[in-house]
Structure formats: C-alpha cells, structure tokens
Amino acid sequence: MDEELGEPSPITEYQSSAGYNDPLQSNGVLQAIEEENLEKIEELVSTGHSLNISYKNGNTPLHIAIIKNNIQIFRYLLAQDDIRINTRNSQGQTPLFLAVRYGHFESVKHLLEKGANVNLPYNREVTPLHESVQYPDIAHILIKNGADIDAVDYNNDTPLHNAVVDSCIETVCMLLYYGADANAIGCFNYTPFMRALFNKDVEIQDALFDYIDDFTVTSMNYYSSLTLAVKNYSPYVEEMIKRGAEVTVADYKACIYYPNANNFKIILNNLTADDVADNDVNLLLLSSKLNKENFEQYIEIIMEHSDSSVLEILAQKTSSQDLASLIESSNNNFFNNCLPHDKITKLILLWLEYGCKLRTGLIYEIYVNMGYCELFKILLFMDYVDDWSPFALTPRLIFDIHSDVLALCFELTRRDWYESINKRKFMTDFISSFHYWKNHYLVETAFHFSERKFRFGGRSKFLQDLDVLPAIPSLLELARDQTRKYIVGKFNMTTSRQYYTYVNCLDIASVYKKILMYEKKIYS
C-alpha cells in the first residue's frame, strides 16, 4: 500500500526545503492525509490548500484516502465542492477504480452517488467492472449505475471472462442475468465457457452452458472447445457434440493423453471415416501411451462399441506386425499395458474378420508368446500370407504342410544371422520343437548353436532337454508325420487350412486328431 501512496513531486520537495510555502501546493495536505490527521487537513483547506494536486505517481488526496480506507477523511474530501472525483493517476486509475480494487463497497457507493464515471478504465483498458468480479455486491452496484457489461480490456476479455477465471460463480450468474455476452471472444480466442473448461470449473460450466451459441470455436493454440472439454474431463463432452461441436482426431488423441473411458467411447463413435483412417488412430498409439487399466478399457470399447465400418477401417490399416507387437508387449512384464490372453484372442479374431491379413510373423509371435493356445488352434483353419522367417521352427513345421525338419535345419545352420535375432523367442521355439520331433538333424542343429555360444542364459538348457529325449524317434512321431504326408499328397493339398479341416472331420478318436493337429505333444 505504501507503494500506491507514492512520493511527493520534486518541485514540492524543493519548495519545502527552501522554506517556500505555496498556498496552492498540497504538500501539507498530502502529509496530513498520510498521517490520517483530519483536523490538520481541515485547517490546511481553510487556508487555501488545494485537494486536487497529486504526488508524482498521480495519486490525489482522494486516491490516498481510499488506499488507506479512512472513511472519515474520504467522506470529508468527497463533501468538498471543488473535489475532482474522476482524476486518474499515472496508471490511469480513478478513485473509483481503487475503491473497487480494494473491495470498499461504501466508498464505491458514495463515489457513484457523487457522479464518478463508472466506465473509466485504467491504462490497460481494465474497467472498474472488470476489477470488481471478486466482489459481487460491488459488481452489482456498478451495473446498476451504468457499467458497460461487455467492455473489453487490453486482452479483449470482458468482465465475464474475468469472473470465470477467478471462479466467481455469483458474479458469473449476475452478469448473465444482466445480459453479458456468453459467447464473447477474449484472450487467445477463448470464450468464457472455454475458460471454465480450462479451469475444470464444472459449476461455472453449468451456469454458462445453455448460453453458448457456438461450440466450434477454436483457440489461438488450435484447441477447440471440445478438445478442451476432453482434456479437462468436462461432463459436457457428449452434450457439446449433440449441439454441434465437431469431433476431430485431436479429440481422439486428447482421450489418449487425458484418459477417460466414457469420453473415448463418445469420441470414437463420432469420428468420420476419414478421421478413423488417420495415421494417429491406431492400436500402437494406445498401447504406448496408456497404462494397463486404461488400455484394456479402450480395447474393450473398440471391440464392443464400434460399428462395422469403423472396425473395418481399423482392421484393414492394422498390420499383422502391429498385432504381433501387442502380443509381445502383453507377454512381457516390462510393459504396463499388457492385455490378458483372452482379450488378445478376441481382438485378433475380430481384426481378421474385418480384413486384417494373417501373416506368418503374427503366427510366430502367438506361438512363442502364448504357446499352442486356443487362438493358435483356430488359426490353423485360416489361410495366411508371406513366407516364413528362416528362424521360425515349430510354428512353421506345424503350419507349413510342405515343410521338412531337415530342410529347416539346413536353412538355420547355413545362414550367419544368429547374432541379430531375438534369442528369447528362438530359445522358446527351438526347445518346444523337442516336444514334437526327435530328429538327429534337429539335435545336431541344437549342438551347432550350443557350440557357437548362442547364449540364452547358458548352453546347458539345450543339452538338458536333449538328455531326456529317446535315442530314436518314437513310432507315434513317425506315424503322425507319415499320415500327414499321405493325406496332403493324396488330396493335393496346398494350405494348412485344407489339411486341418480334413483332419478335424475324420471319424477317429479325438486323441488321434490332437496328435495330427500337434495339439498333443509326443515327448514331455
């Protein structure tokens, strides 16, 4: 407050030090005001001292009396016929503006009765009404005395903007009652409602909502009203869309960075086909940005609440490798966004139904991460595309009905690629092959990698599994392989789907079917 009072002007200080007492100067009055000495003020005024000369910062005795909130001196000054009540200090502030700033209702009331200009702004075009929003009683008396309810300040903000920013619900309601423009565009192109969204102030959103004419306004930083609603968890997302808010990919991404399952469901179901086809609308973005709980919720929403056109676009633009990445992350405790196997199964089958291509890389990931599971069994009855990777062993021998253990072992050992592959997956795949085949070529290949110091945590793992295998293939293994060879040759089969469909329809015991379909392991 002392800073508001200011210092006497240089001229006044010089005259005082020289012993010159100009009756027109108010240095004595200002001193008396600072000392709050009404008797001295009255005496000085009676001898001709002016009440309208100011400090160098422009504050007059009336400004100072308001700053000090000395009602007795304030009323005395206001009662003087020659008092100037609209004088502005160096910042453009009138006595009324300061009375409003300090919340002095009685001072405001008396200044208005005396004829103070209710709309004189200070240098930044902030009017008394802008300044009054934290004091509803003062705002009300200003409005009743002609305050411009939609005056704009240097930021283009109205008093309503200020009331929203300061969370003054009573003033907001008052301004709306007296006709304030709820759709006024202010600083950064924000409307009052957008400010309420930004502040997460649901009470003020409630007050403003029915006054909004346009929910498509976009801020200078390209946030639409709807994006702000999503980012700040407003309960009005769905109603805004019903009233014309345009849903865009930006709103979809906001649901990812500011997760809310209900908002995601609403936004997803209101995206256009072009929006769904956008590169940012994909499963991997969900997987990389969401935690486990939110990711599982979002995937469930996509599967259960999307219409067929959305599913078709998502499935056809999702690569098999993308699905493979989801499977890998779901089987790795390092990731927080893993899906349970039943959800993975449901998702992959749905995606395949709507046009995602089944590729060998996906089959491989399913096998090494989930084993011979129900999903793997279902895929046996589907056609796939692409050639197999040279390091895929067990799933390839199961799916590729023309594959051969000898040929695969030769391909594995003739390429110098072993340093670049995922060793965990290769170990899982290679060791699992011992459950189905006892082939000396396979054993030699195992020793080959063991000797090459292919480290998956030690070479002993291979050798331990080899020790429990019989010396020669069992009759059951030989019979299984010869039966498949016979069926494939007799009926000129070219795909796994043909072979496994035929086996599934054979009138034989279920245990034999499981052996022919590799569901039942031969070696433990």
TrEMBL record:
Listed SUPFAM superfamilies: Ankyrin repeat
Stretch list, region Disordered: 1-25
Residue spans of the ANK repeats: 57-90, 91-123, 155-187
InterPro entries with a match to the protein in the record: Ankyrin_rpt, Ankyrin_rpt-contain_sf, Multifunctional_ANK_Repeat
The name this protein goes by in its record: Uncharacterized protein
Alphabetized Pfam families for the sequence: Ank_2
UniProt-listed Gene3D superfamilies: Ankyrin repeat-containing domain
Record keywords, A-Z: ANK repeat, Repeat
Compositional bias ranges of the Polar residues kind: 12-25
